[in-house]
Design brief:
This protein is 28% helix and 25% strand. It starts with a helix and ends in an 11-residue tail after the last helix. The site of zinc ion has 7 residues, from helix 2 and helix 3.
Length: 130
């Protein structure tokens, strides 16, 4: 699977987004180390703070299915079907990803491939709790 195919899967996942308030639809596709795929979309709520992002939806689906080792995520987000601008994961999603992923974890966006450390060079982690 090419990065372009991976990103196209994220766009497909965005079609399932529930975003009646922002109309900003996001899709994510999470790839496990052993090749499993978990998709996610953003799910908004009338009580705005209860909204969840596509990336965390995918991570929580994977972890709740017994998978904790991840290789990459593709994220596509935009309004009115325009996914051309890079949709960088928010701080909350980066923090959740950092729980399970090392700094080399790949993040595939519309404009290229990044590493987790590109967006979150330092983070609060389980090391802080020791
Ligand atoms: Zn997020």
């Amino acid at each position: 699977m090419t990065n372009s195919d991976f990103f196209e899967m994220a766009i497909k996942s965005a079609e399932k987004a529930y975003a009646p308030y922002s109309n900003f639809k996001v899709g994510a596709v999470l790839l496990t180390d052993d090749g499993q795929i978990f998709t996610g979309c953003n799910i908004e709520n009338a009580s705005y703070s209860m909204t969840i992002c596509a990336e965390r939806t995918a991570v929580f689906k994977a972890v709740s299915s017994g998978f904790k080792n991840f290789k990459a995520i593709a994220v596509a987000g935009g309004i009115d079907g325009d996914f051309s601008k890079p949709c960088i994961p928010c701080g909350a999603c980066l923090q959740v990803l950092s729980e399970f992923c090392d700094n080399d974890f790949m993040i595939v966006l519309s404009d290229g491939v990044y590493r987790l450390s590109d967006f979150l060079p330092k983070m609060f982690s389980k090391e802080n709790l020791k």
